[in-house]
Amino acid sequence: MTPRPVERARPATRRRAIGIAASALAIAAIAVVAWAAFAPVPVAANREQPFVIPKGTWAKRMAGDPVEILPQRIRLTLGINDVLVLTNHDEVPQTFGPALLIPGQSFSLPFELASQYEFACTAHASGQMTIMVDPFPASPWARLRWRALELVDSFGNKTHDPHA
Questions:
Q1: Which residues pair with 101 in a beta bridge?
Q2: pLDDT, tens digit, for every residue of 8-32?
Q3: N or C: which end of the chain has fewer CB within 10 A?
Q4: Distance CA 63, CA 48 (A)
Q5: Could you tell me the pTM of the whole model?
Q6: What is the edge-to-edge ordering of all strands in the sheet holding 83-88?
Q7: 1.10.540.10, 3.30.70.270, 3.40.605.10, 2.60.40.420: which CATH number matches 48-153?
C-alpha cells in the first residue's frame, strides 16, 4: 500500500475563504458607518470645552521658546460643546478677545451661531486664535462627519492641561 500524499487546500476553497472574510469585513464596516450616521449624538449637561494657559507661558514666549499650549484652531459644536472656558494659570495676565484674564481667573465664552470666529490671543505667538463653531449634527451625514472629527481630535490632549 502506497502512502497518500497530503492534500493541500484547493485554490477554489482558499478563494472562497478569502471572499467570506472580505464580505464579513465589508458588513462590519457598513454596520459601523450606519451606527455613526444614525445613532443619536450624546448631549452632555455641561457643554463647556476647557482650555488651560499653564504657568510659565509668558516667560517661555518672551525667551523665544516655542509655546504650544492652545491649538491655533479650536473646533466647537452647537448643543454639544459650545461654551469655551479659558483658565489662566500663568503668572501674568493674558488677553483673549475682549477679556483680560488675570492669573487664576477663568473666562467662559458661549457661542450661539455656527461660524468661524477670530480672536486676539496673547498666549499665541501669532497673536490670533480661530474658533470654528459647527452646527449641531442633525442629519446622518452631519453625524458621520462630526464623529469622524471627534475621532481625529481624540488623539490629542483636548484640555491642553499639562496635568490632564
A1: 94
A2: 656 778 888 898 999 999 999 888 8
A3: N
A4: 32
A5: 0.69
A6: 48-53, 83-88, 106-110
A7: 2.60.40.420
